[in-house]
Amino acid sequence: MFKRNYICLLLSCLYTIGSSQHEIVDSLELQLAKATDPKTRIDLLLDIGTAYQEYDYPRSLTSGYDALAQAEAIDYPKGIFYAYNLLGVGYNGIGPIDSAHYYHQMALAVAKYLQNPGCLAISKNNLGIYYLNQGNYVLGLQYFQEALAHDEELGDHLDPTSLYANIGIIHEELGDIPLAIEYYLKSSEAALAIGGKEDRAYAFLDLGYVAGLEEDYDLALQHYDSALVLYNELGFPHRIAETLYYQGEIHFAQKDYGEALQAQNKALVIYEDLGSIEDIPSMYGIIGKIHKAAEDNETAIQFYLQAIERAKEGSFSSLMPALYEELSDIYVKVNDYERAYGAMMKFQELQDSFLSEATQERIAKLEMGYQLKVQEAENLELTKRQAQQNLILRQRTLIAISMGLIAVLLILLVIRQYRTNKVKAELNRQLEDTVQKRTGDLEAANEQLRRSNDELERFTFIASHDLKEPLRNITSFVNLIQRKLGKSADQDLQDYMGFVTRNTKQLYALVEDILTHSRVRQGEADAPGTVELDEILQDIRSNLTHILEERSAQIVWSDLPSLIGHRSDFYLLFKNLIENGLKYNESSAPLIQVIAKSEAEDWCFSCKDNGLGIAPAYHKQIFQMFTRLNNRGKYLGSGIGLATCQQIVQKYSGELWVESEEGKGSTFHFRLPRRVVEVEMEQA
């Protein structure tokens, strides 16, 4: 649905929570004016900088630089550490992000020199956030877990709240939602155990986010309202903006786009006032997403373009691939294939190091769509020219006939008629030459397009085959490592190997589905033959015996005709539809019904289930490759099955669609022409 914001573990503040940030700063500056001890002055400057982080990043940086200069002058290592940390957090807020990374690295070097667990926990957590923002989840998780280990050394002296939340974010990004929820709940429990007003507000944020993941939207909004009240009392604008963002995401999930826009626009105004360059690009992208969902495509395009510009200004390169991908999708919706192709190519440049097969497929489709548009324009131009030439030919033919009649009446015009006929013949010859040349050019272009398409399909098939061998090797060697280590492996290593195994299996299944989809696109060498649908459904029911018995499920059919085609195509078509009906079904007795009906010009086949159902807004979207509407942690799958079904039906000149409502099951229909149906059965 939506992703959790990344949370920084800041240095502990020495002031009392409960007053507004401006009042806190005023109080600290009064203390600073009276302080004479150098270390006390440095500590107060650091506290002032920390207070400014809630509403004025530039002043926070100024306090950080003042504290750093004074700490270096008296060789005060702990003050130097907290100054570096303050500067890193400040630049993480307003950019450039490379400066934030530099100061967090400097802070870690000082923390290692001090051998202070608290300092090590703070600096490693902030570096973990940097790598999480860059998409390096392995290194990010390593830093978070090391920070948590340092935190545990301190016992009750340091708050692990943010660390638990950040580890939860890693697991959510990797698709392990149950484990992510477990860490978010640990974060809320830790915050409630501390009991301060700020900690209780933070706990409400965690609980609201967990309720959102579990799709209990009313409960989520209640928790966020509670957090918002506390943050308004505390005067924390950054946290207020964050809470408004989460509220907006809940309204978006409820399809209440007006409320969603209101909340996100309020959050954006606060982030703009704060100069929070880390959050501003994301907010523009989020508001663009809402306009896109509300089908206000032109406004959505403008927000995505602003998001890209702001991401460039802040050097947040990790945000830009997703923004370009969304922008490309909107351009496709408004039929601007040239800009869609340009945006997707920019996405490919930014994402080249870890470009997935799904992205390659989409780029190929966009490129083909653009080429087809160009070809269509050329064909239209050729048709217009041919029509003009035909009109000219008819006009000259009428002239020739008129001249012939005149020649009968006036013999003196015979010579002129002869010359006219000769000119007409020459024009006809030139016209035929032009038409033949243009026709040849068109055929050559179409042949080149077919060859390109064939090469793309062969590439997908070969590349997918080549991916399977290293995936099997990875799985095998991870299993060998697990057996060799046995119970001696620590929890972190077991978590790492678990990540590798789960993601390798997921990628292997995805490759298998891509191979299946590729085979359908390539066709089969054997000639089509008679396909008995009764036999196919018997085989499917036999292969699913274990699932059917375990879930008390049934597959029923009657009076099915025979078809002309390849047996593997129709086996895969019905298998995918039936398995979807069983997978997305929480009924105590799932029922799948397969029906065939003869119509005037074709046959209509239906596969009906009593499962979860699909909202009308997604009836077309589900047939796109890699589209998933349900939680990956609860329902396994690659999102290719229905796209493969559509490819098979189109192969036989048919049409596939769905009729469904949420909670009322789904019926997938596909229509085939009568030439595909060999034997018609009497209807019951």
Keywords summarizing the entry:
about 5% strand, about 675 residues, disordered C terminus, alpha+beta, 24 helices, Serine Threonine Protein Phosphatase 5, Tetratricopeptide repeat, about 70% helix, extended, 8 strands, Heat Shock Protein 90
Q: What gross morphology would you assign?
A: extended
Uncertain stretches of 5 or more adjacent residues: 6-19, 353-366, 368-372, 680-684
Oligomer: single chain
Helicity level, as a percent range?
Answer: over 70%
Coarse structural class: alpha+beta
Number of helices: 24
| Main sheet summary | 5 strands, mixed
Portion of residues in beta strands equals: 5-15%
Average pLDDT, rounded to a whole number, is 80
Distance separating the two termini: 45 Å
Number of beta-strand segments: 8
Please tell me about this protein's structure:
By secondary structure, the protein is an alpha+beta fold. Among the domains are: 21-278, Tetratricopeptide repeat domain (Serine Threonine Protein Phosphatase 5, Tetratricopeptide repeat, Alpha Horseshoe); 529-679, Heat Shock Protein 90 (2-Layer Sandwich). 70% of the residues lie in helices and 7% in strands. The protein has 24 helices and eight strands. It has helices spanning 21-34, 38-52, 57-73, 77-94, 97-114, 117-133, 137-154, 161-173, 177-194, 197-213, 217-234, 237-253, 257-274, 280-293, 297-313, 320-333, 337-350, 357-409, 414-485, 491-522, 533-543, 545-551, 567-583, 641-651; strands spanning 529-532, 554-557, 562-565, 591-598, 602-609, 655-660, 666-673, 677-679. The strands form two sheets. Strands 2-4-5-7-6 form a five-stranded mixed beta sheet. Strands 1-3-8 form a three-stranded antiparallel beta sheet. A hairpin with a 3-residue loop joins strand 4 (591-598) and strand 5. Helix 3 packs antiparallel against helix 4 (77-94) and helix 17 packs antiparallel against helix 18 (357-409). The protein is extended, with a radius of gyration of 33 Å. The two termini are 45 Å apart. 36% of the residues are buried. Mean pLDDT is 80; it is low at 6-19, 353-366, 368-372 and 680-684.
